[in-house]
Amino acid sequence: MIDEVTRSIRSQIYERVSSPLMGAFIINWSIWNYRFWLVIFSALDPREKTSFIDYNLYSNACDVWGRGIVFPVISTFAYIYGYPLLVKPVFIYLRNRQRELKEIRQQIDDETVLTKEEARAVWTSAQALLAERELEIEKLTRQLQNTKGNYELPNSEDADSTEKPDRPFPAAKLSDLELSVLQAVASAPDYAFTETQLINKFGGDRLQVRTALDWLLECKFVSEQYSQAAMDQSFAPLPLGRKYVSRALQP
């Protein structure tokens, strides 16, 4: 019970002392009444301290109310409301100077030529990242091949299926994303779609779209070539891919 009361009292005292108003008032009161603290911490006898405070520091009502309450209160509100007004333009000025210095440093960094060691480090990092992405693509490709291993993949002879209508249609099955990519390529002129355009068209996931394109290339449903104008890989449907789309759209 006593511990709870003690903790409650400490909590209340801490809240009062830690408030901005009370803290500022204590500081200002101490400044206005610094002689009071000098007497308190002096080597005088307690009776002499009391007498000195009563007859020298606070000998009249003006001293008691002025230095004791009025002047510290005025200084406290002046500090709370006046100090931010004085500091604000200083902080704004310093902030602007810091931003200008940052822009100058950035400009210097942009104009600075990389050393051979720095260029080698950047190249090594880029190659490591590229190798990591290629491993992810290869892993997903193997997973797709494992899941579709039960289906018969079309061979190169099936690519000419339009000239041999008696040949059975290949049993390769496509996922929703692969079928959507094939339909988009088949509905456009040859090599009209680039890899970047297909990635943007189907959600922006480069890895999934690239995996779907690799599967379509392996199934001989589309062909791929590099477009100098777009500086990217472009795709066109093959006869087998058009036939698959037409069969898929049939009810």
Question: Describe it for me?
Answer:
The protein is mainly alpha-helical and 251 residues long. It is built from 10 helices and 3 strands; from the N terminus they run H-H-H-H-H-H-H-E-H-H-E-E-H. The protein has helices at residues 2-18, 20-32, 34-40, 46-57, 61-111, 116-147, 176-186, 195-201, 206-218, 239-249, and strands at 193-194, 222-227, 232-237. Strands 1-3-2 form a 3-stranded antiparallel β-sheet. A hairpin with a 4-residue loop joins strand 2 and strand 3 (232-237). Helix 2 (20-32) packs across helix 5 (61-111) and helix 7 crosses helix 9.
Which helices and strands occur, and which strands form pairs?
Blueprint: H1 2-18, H2 20-32, H3 34-40, H4 46-57, H5 61-111, H6 116-147, H7 176-186, E1 193-194, H8 195-201, H9 206-218, E2 222-227, E3 232-237, H10 239-249
Antiparallel strand pairs: 1-3, 2-3
**Can you count the beta strands?**
3
The main pleated sheet reads as: 3 strands, antiparallel
Taking all Cα atoms into account, the compactness measure Rg is: 41 Å
Q: What are the secondary-structure elements, in order, as H or E?
A: HHHHHHHEHHEEH
- Measured between the Cα atoms of the first and last residue, the distance is 82 Å
Estimate what percentage of residues fall within beta strands.
Answer: 5-15%
Question: Given the structure, what is the number of helices?
Answer: 10
Q: What helical percentage do the residues reach?
A: 55-70%
Average residue-wise pLDDT: 79
Give the strand line-up of the largest sheet: 1-3-2
Shape, principal axes of CA atoms: elongated
Unreliable spans: 156-171
Helix/strand/pairing class, anyone? mainly alpha
